[in-house]
Amino acid sequence: MSSELFTDDIHSDVSELNTSFDVFKYLRKTTERFGLHYFSVLVLPGDTTGSFTNHSIINNWPPDMIKAYDRLDLINLSPVISALKRQVTPVTWHVDDVLTTKISDVLASARDAFYKKGFVRGVNFPVHDSRSMRGSVGFAGDREPFENRELLELSMISIHIYDRLSQLTQHREADAPPLSDRELECLRWTAAGKTSSEISTILSLSEHTVNHYLISATKKLDAVNRTQAVAKSIRKGWI
Questions:
Q1: Is 18 among the domain residues?
Q2: What is the pTM of this model?
Q3: N or C: which end of the chain has fewer CB within 10 A?
Q4: Residue 66: helix, strand or coil by DSSP?
Q5: Is residue 5 part of a domain?
């Protein structure tokens, strides 16, 4: 599949992204341009603990797919994640090679669910930031294999995106918001268009608890509703 050149100056475009939500929109546009459906930016786990939810910086995966991924403990079992820890070159994959009986019959039985979501083939790029924090930027969909020039362009996008997210994180740390981590998480997912019900699934919380965090954040920011709370947080660069 051939794609038009996404940008003449990736570095310039990415440097103009001022919030995590800007990055989210940029990655969503990138996936669409390359005929893909999903993207994810992860901090690579350094051991055999954790989950996709805990290591995800930003993604557009459906809540039920995240829940299934974590239920199957794929962040610790996936050969893709394992390869990303060992190498510095892109890892291309097909779901048939990831969810196999070599790992377990349970994982192999999950293939149909991923096929239905269009999560069939993808590529993950190992990246790191100025603090040497290792991560992965991944793209997935149900299109035909990538051409070499597409992999090259996606690789450049991934490098700049991960670095930009790191810069935004450091900026947020310098100008810390008056909100808890959970309140910020709920606002981020609200900014991404998720409902309280969907956020509860993503974060493994009750819907009541999610609403409590959003109400608390709204009060702390002196906003009239969650929409204004999201807008204020985006302007501050907190989400």
A1: yes
A2: 0.70
A3: N
A4: helix
A5: no
